[in-house]
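Figure 2 data, in text form.
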Amino acid sequence: MAEPIRIGIVAGESSGDMLGSGLMAAIREQHPEVSFTGIGGAQMTAQGLDSMVPMERLSVMGLIEPLKRLPELLRIRKNLLRHFLADPPDVFIGIDSPDFNLGLERRLRQAGILTVHYVSPSVWAWRQKRVHKIERAVDLMLTLFPFEAQFYAQHQVQVAFVGHPLADLIPLDTEVEQARRNLALAVDKPVLALLPGSRSGELARLLPEFIACARLCQQRWPDLQLLLPCANAERRQQVETYLEQHEPSLGIQLFDGKAREVMAAADAILIASGTATLEALLLKKPMLVCYRMNWLSYRLISGMLKVPYFSLPNLLAGKRLVNERVQDAVQAQSLYEDIVELMEDSERQQSLNQEYYAIHRQLKQGASSRAAQAVLALIKGK
């Protein structure tokens, strides 16, 4: 019988909870005698995690809320550190949440405890000097994308590219007609999906131009079906209020959640930059990616960027695969012209599809299983 192993593991938000639960299940499959302690959500708890505090206590976003919650966050991290130093696990795994986890990992590693970080911060894109902090904090970095692994290898950080769980979850071929039936749409009429973001400020900056573009598209294709998934009740209210005030006659269908189903049903997608663009790629959808932030933040960040693109499809392809529009270039007429090209250029659609399939296969690696193998190899190597 294999020796029992004990793993400390911390995830701070829902995406990390999903990754953590998959990793935990894969570790147990390869090494049944294992126990997990730390912080996680419902999915990780279902896999046997002894969660020391509710994961929601770590789920903070933006600039102001983390500052207001800083004393509590520091207290939680201090308690975790005390716990793991008093009762050292065989390995500690921090999942994403780098502001919280990397400091904890550094202190644990200094005490001789093996540390793994799962999901790279965007250190390859800006503030690259953070890689030296990461080098001091982790024995192994697990990355979702191959270009991230290349960056860490260049900086002598032990790294393993494991692939992306979404690429394992989403089939290589998308059933468009079935997706439309599931959403009660006309199967034979064109569909444009609008995804202007899941955060209030992001949505406020992009929604007016997205809606104006949708109006132009509807004038060109009168039978066009316009779909917009809302991340939560607050975002739905925000969209409904805007439509009532500015476009009460625009025939746009709103959905609660269901972003993946909406994208699967679409002929083309007008989308805010973010993780959703990876889902759109895996669903093999022509897309136009937009990004807007307040002008001061943009001036600060744009000067620090070290990559020529901001959207995941282009970063993964290493070239301009999809059009990007940023800041003042997010204008309804320009968006409309790009969407017309996406909807009507069949040669470009075919070329995009080939690129999308290649990237999907590259990311479809059995991410949880590969990550588990890398973690167990690290423990064995010690």
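Caption note: The first strand starts at residue 5 and ends at 11.
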